[in-house]
Design brief:
Helix content is 30%, strand content 15%. The chain is α/β, with parallel strands linked by helices. The chain has a domain of 138 residues: Rossmann fold (3-Layer(aba) Sandwich), CATH 3.40.50.
Length: 220
């Protein structure tokens, strides 16, 4: 199976390493073009391509760009694709977005709205890039990650990817429910096994945020 990454930052690189090790064929892309990725791609053992080619030539696309760059993405190549959305909303970086500030929607619903011909799965947003190396911040136990989608078939594809690269998964429902593992919720970037993650998701409150950066840890 082929995976095309749109965005080649720390999360994209970490997932690309895991996917390559699991036997996936991986392509990296970014807004600056494949020439800017040659050395990185060579080091990871993957291919560099344009965004359009990375999406159109892959079975799964992974969108891993800053949320404030979403509208810069041409939605056309994503039509008919399963897209894993790793985005998180940080107002200090992305600017204030009223629909999110007022809890009227979720980040992945906005991604789905923009990539209207794609099928979006919220995935891999609730893990720090430094934890994308076994044992994934949870020594001695298998880490679980939350996912959400409005389409069962797409959800199954995402769950299989998680399993193959070493994670358990806990589905939370549709994209409207993905707020449960967005920024500043109890499940956000905290290393948890399946039972712990289920409890953290259940403890989430829509109008309550954890203190900023409380999810960050010293993982040296």
């Amino acid at each position: 199976m082929k995976i095309g990454f749109v965005g080649a930052g720390a999360i994209g690189q970490g997932l690309a390493r895991l996917a390559t090790a699991a036997g996936y064929s991986v392509t990296l892309s970014n807004s600056r073009g494949p020439d800017s990725l040659r050395d990185l791609a060579w080091g990871l053992g993957v291919r560099a391509a344009t965004v359009g080619d990375a999406v159109e030539e892959s079975d799964i696309s992974v969108l891993t760009i800053p949320f404030n760059r979403l509208l810069d993405i041409d939605p056309a190549p994503f039509t008919g694709r399963v897209v894993l959305d790793t985005n998180n909303y940080y107002p200090t970086r992305d600017g204030q977005i009223t629909e999110l500030d007022d809890n009227l929607t979720t980040t992945s619903q906005l991604v789905q709205q923009h990539l209207r011909g794609a099928t979006v799965v919220k995935a891999f947003n609730a893990i720090m890039a430094a934890d994308l190396v076994a044992p994934f911040g949870l020594p001695g136990r298998r880490r679980a990650l939350p996912i959400a989608a409005d389409d069962d078939a797409a959800l199954a594809i995402a769950a299989d990817l998680h399993e193959r690269i070493g994670f358990d998964v806990v589905p939370t429902g549709g994209l409207a429910d993905s707020w449960r593992f967005e920024r500043a919720k109890p499940a956000y970037c905290i290393p948890l096994d399946r039972d712990g993650l289920i409890a953290a998701l259940a403890a989430a409150e829509r109008d309550v945020e954890l203190p900023h950066n409380s999810w960050k840890r010293d993982i040296r």
